[in-house]
UniProtKB/TrEMBL annotation:
Cited PANTHER family: D,D-DIPEPTIDE TRANSPORT ATP-BINDING PROTEIN DDPF-RELATED (PTHR43776:SF7), TRANSPORT ATP-BINDING PROTEIN (PTHR43776)
Keyword Transport: yes
Name of the protein this chain belongs to: Dipeptide/oligopeptide/nickel ABC transporter ATP-binding protein
Chain intervals for the UniProt region annotation (Disordered): 353-373
Species this chain originates from: Plantactinospora mayteni
CDD domains associated with the record: ABC_NikE_OppD_transporters
Keywords: ATP-binding, Nucleotide-binding, Transport
Length: 373
């Protein structure tokens, strides 16, 4: 983590406003007709100061990768704005967007499938340099590549080797080198360590941290594992069904989560102190994540929320509003924090697949006594 460099008026490298990415659902034998929309990202506001790390967490399918891709315009948003260093990216013509892309790179989850097995490391790294016209000649490009390899801790002999000749951790270093060789300012790392052994994960997270210090990088780090983003992030945003439900400075979020969904996520993270671990409140969420093609009305979390109230929760969508240093999308956050509203049992609501995208089709499943499932 580095200090914010006061470049630009606001010091923010990225400003996202009301970002939406909706994918059409089509059906038809001869002609496809649009029968619904998957609201993968549905109204996200976030800001990333230059040189800082924004950690994005949430369950599988909540829209994290789609948000990351939309930020880089790899998926074009349905609505909203993405401002990068004062330039509005949405609606930018392809030639201008291409020039901006050098400054915004992505690291992918699975280094094996994101690296072409037929290309050796040198050719993987030189590709981007040539595409963006970086380096006057071959010698200049080799020099840039050698420095990048050194920065990510790979030896020179790696240049002539192919991805399958490396271990998982080394392959992810190649993926990081491919992003960094272009000299980006923003790096979106989508689950950068999820495919790696636990013993290697810390090495790669530390490498990302060191590279940030050295190169003044700005990160959006996406993970479903809260432990991964905790130490590397300045601010953490928690996503649920296409929207942020809570955002707070990293320490604050882990110390005192305010949104019921964040509390449930945090309750699943083990605490190193055995006494605290024994006393720890565990919240098991009822049912699966509802379909983003057919999100619940009102608060999207109300079908699974152990604190849901008879008023407002089912019919009024809570805005992401400031509470202290955090932003929280819950009508009752203060009353939950003070203990005035206590958690209760929740009956799992199962949405049958055939109902997705059409009328809400909810069947009840009995809950286990004493749990929230
Ligand atoms: N190209 C696409 N066309 C249609 N639907 C899509 C497309 N890409 C993603 N989706 C849907 O959008 C929703 C969000 O997907 P996304 O991959 O962003 O989630 P995620 O939070 O990254 O999940 P994971 O943790 O599993 O990677 C999912 O319901 C997914 O099926
Ligand atoms: S608004 Fe209601 S349902 Fe939503 S998180 Fe808050 S208490 Fe739960
Ligand atoms: Mg993803």
């Amino acid at each position: 983590m580095t200090d914010v460099k006061a470049t630009g008026e606001s010091g923010n490298l990225v400003e996202v406003r009301d970002l939406k990415v909706h994918f059409p659902i089509t059906r038809g034998v001869l002609f496809d007709r649009v029968v619904g929309q998957v609201k993968a990202v549905d109204g996200v506001d976030l800001t990333i100061p230059r040189g800082k790390t924004y950690g994005l967490v949430g369950e599988s399918g909540c829209g994290k990768s789609t948000l990351g891709r939309a930020l880089l315009q790899l998926t074009r948003p349905t609505g909203g704005q993405v401002n990068f260093d004062g330039v509005e990216l949405t609606g930018l013509p392809p030639n201008r967007l291409r020039a901006m892309r050098r400054r915004m790179q992505m690291i992918f989850q699975d280094p094996m499938s994101s690296l072409d097995p037929r290309q050796n490391v040198e050719s993987i790294l030189v590709e981007g340099l040539q595409a963006h016209g970086i380096g006057a000649d071959r010698a200049a490009r080799r020099d840039i590549i050698a420095k990048t390899l050194d920065a990510v801790g790979l030896p020179k002999w790696a240049l002539s080797r192919y991805p399958h000749e490396f271990s998982g951790g080394q392959r992810q270093r190649i993926g990081i080198a491919r992003a960094l060789v272009l000299g980006p300012e923003l790096v979106v790392a989508d689950e950068p360590v999820s495919a790696l052994d636990v013993s290697i994960q810390a090495q790669v997270v530390n490498l990302l941290d060191e590279l940030q210090d050295e190169l003044g990088l700005t990160y959006l780090v996406i993970a479903h594992d809260l432990a991964v983003v905790r130490h590397i992030s300045d601010v953490v945003g928690v996503m649920y069904l296409g929207a942020l439900v809570e955002e707070a400075p990293s320490d604050r979020l882990y110390r005192e989560p305010l949104h019921p969904y964040t509390r449930a996520l945090m309750s699943a993270v083990p605490v190193p102190d055995p006494e605290v671990e024994d006393r720890r409140e565990r919240i098991l969420l009822a049912g699966d994540l509802p379909s983003p093609a057919n999100p619940p009305a009102g608060c999207r979390f109300h079908t699974r929320c152990p604190w849901a109230q008879p008023t407002r929760c089912a019919d009024e969508r809570p805005a992401l509003r400031p509470i202290g240093e955090s932003r929280v999308a819950c009508h009752w956050a203060e009353q939950i924090a003070s203990g005035e509203i206590r958690p209760h049992k929740v009956t799992a609501q199962i949405v049958r697949p055939e109902d997705e995208g059409e009328t809400p089709g909810i069947v009840s499943a009995p809950s286990e006594p004493g749990s929230f499932v």
